[in-house]
């Protein structure tokens, strides 16, 4: 029971964090914590089969599928806050409260009066006992569930399939479109630099610097730009001071000029200003 009271608060906090998280990736990670906690509770109840299934299938497979879908679809789309069904929030709150009451009652009954008959049910081993139940009295229910899942997968494939309504664009068509955009509004037809080129950091959330020292926002991912997670990649004050000293010492470099730094950290004190002078 000690392990249960240690795991239960972690699982509850992770479940609440999963609901209130503003980013879908954080919510998925909180759900993974909940699943791992449940797997540990299964292990405490001498259910190694459920423990392995919870870790391998749910946490290892389904959670990775969630994360892959989030990464492929992106998070630059915002969900509509308009309720399509009137009163669905009230119904959801009532169901959540009812489920919480049932969960508390079940846990309380288990703590007060521990389950009996587990030794007889797991006779010969937990995995062997589950296999005997699944493939003996519940074999029809197992096969019906498998058929239902296969039908659901086929239905999802049919509903998600889209017929191509226009011919596929070739590399030549794409090149012509880039040159047409260059002729119309001056959009550069070549590839933009990757994030971090000539910048202070080479991370994916730092835009590359153009030859004039300005940042190229298009070099970062659109998802990061929509989230406001793009960092400032211009030179910091130390690099600016070094460039100015080099320019003052090198007459040729001084004639050419140096790249002026962009916005710097406002936390620099008077000592840094004195050094600059």
From TrEMBL:
<comment type="function">
    <text>NDH-1 shuttles electrons from NADH, via FMN and iron-sulfur (Fe-S) centers, to quinones in the respiratory chain. Couples the redox reaction to proton translocation (for every two electrons transferred, four hydrogen ions are translocated across the cytoplasmic membrane), and thus conserves the redox energy in a proton gradient.</text>
</comment>
<dbReference type="InterPro" id="IPR042106">
    <property type="entry name" value="Nuo/plastoQ_OxRdtase_6_NuoJ"/>
</dbReference>
<feature type="transmembrane region" description="Helical">
    <location>
        <begin position="51"/>
        <end position="73"/>
    </location>
</feature>
<protein>
    <recommendedName>
        <fullName>NADH-quinone oxidoreductase subunit J</fullName>
        <ecNumber>7.1.1.-</ecNumber>
    </recommendedName>
</protein>
<keyword id="KW-0812">Transmembrane</keyword>
<feature type="transmembrane region" description="Helical">
    <location>
        <begin position="138"/>
        <end position="160"/>
    </location>
</feature>
<dbReference type="GO" id="GO:0005886">
    <property type="term" value="C:plasma membrane"/>
</dbReference>
<keyword id="KW-0520">NAD</keyword>
<feature type="region of interest" description="Disordered">
    <location>
        <begin position="245"/>
        <end position="277"/>
    </location>
</feature>
<comment type="similarity">
    <text>Belongs to the complex I subunit 6 family.</text>
</comment>
<dbReference type="Pfam" id="PF00499">
    <property type="entry name" value="Oxidored_q3"/>
</dbReference>
<dbReference type="InterPro" id="IPR001457">
    <property type="entry name" value="NADH_UbQ/plastoQ_OxRdtase_su6"/>
</dbReference>
<feature type="transmembrane region" description="Helical">
    <location>
        <begin position="6"/>
        <end position="21"/>
    </location>
</feature>
<keyword id="KW-1003">Cell membrane</keyword>
<dbReference type="GO" id="GO:0008137">
    <property type="term" value="F:NADH dehydrogenase (ubiquinone) activity"/>
</dbReference>
<dbReference type="GO" id="GO:0048038">
    <property type="term" value="F:quinone binding"/>
</dbReference>
<keyword id="KW-0472">Membrane</keyword>
<feature type="transmembrane region" description="Helical">
    <location>
        <begin position="28"/>
        <end position="45"/>
    </location>
</feature>
<keyword id="KW-1133">Transmembrane helix</keyword>
<feature type="transmembrane region" description="Helical">
    <location>
        <begin position="93"/>
        <end position="118"/>
    </location>
</feature>
<keyword id="KW-0874">Quinone</keyword>
């Amino acid at each position: 029971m000690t392990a249960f009271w240690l795991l239960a608060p972690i699982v509850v906090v992770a479940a609440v964090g999963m609901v209130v998280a503003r980013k879908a990736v954080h919510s998925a990670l909180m759900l993974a914590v909940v699943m791992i906690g449940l797997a540990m509770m299964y292990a405490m109840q001498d259910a190694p089969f459920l423990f392995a299934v919870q870790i391998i299938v749910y946490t290892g497979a389904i959670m990775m599928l969630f994360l892959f879908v989030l990464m492929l679809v992106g998070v630059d789309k915002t969900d509509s806050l308009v309720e399509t069904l009137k009163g669905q929030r009230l119904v959801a709150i009532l169901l959540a409260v009812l489920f919480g009451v049932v969960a508390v009652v079940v846990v309380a009954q288990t703590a007060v009066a521990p389950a009996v008959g587990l030794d007889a049910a797991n006779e010969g081993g937990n995995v062997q006992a589950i296999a005997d139940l699944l493939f003996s009295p519940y074999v029809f229910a197992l096969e019906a569930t498998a058929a239902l899942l296969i039908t659901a997968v086929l239905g999802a494939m049919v509903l998600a399939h889209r017929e191509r309504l226009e011919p596929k664009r070739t590399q030549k068509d794409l090149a012509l479109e880039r040159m047409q955009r260059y002729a119309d509004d001056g959009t550069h037809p070549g590839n933009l630099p990757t994030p971090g080129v000539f910048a202070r950091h080479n991370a994916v959330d730092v835009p590359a610097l153009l030859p004039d020292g300005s940042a190229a926002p298009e070099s970062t991912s659109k998802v990061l730009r929509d989230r406001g997670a793009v960092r400032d990649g211009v030179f910091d004050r130390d690099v600016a001071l070094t460039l100015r000293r080099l320019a003052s010492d090198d007459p040729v470099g001084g004639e050419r000029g140096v790249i002026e730094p962009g916005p710097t950290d406002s936390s620099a004190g008077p000592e840094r200003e004195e050094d600059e002078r």
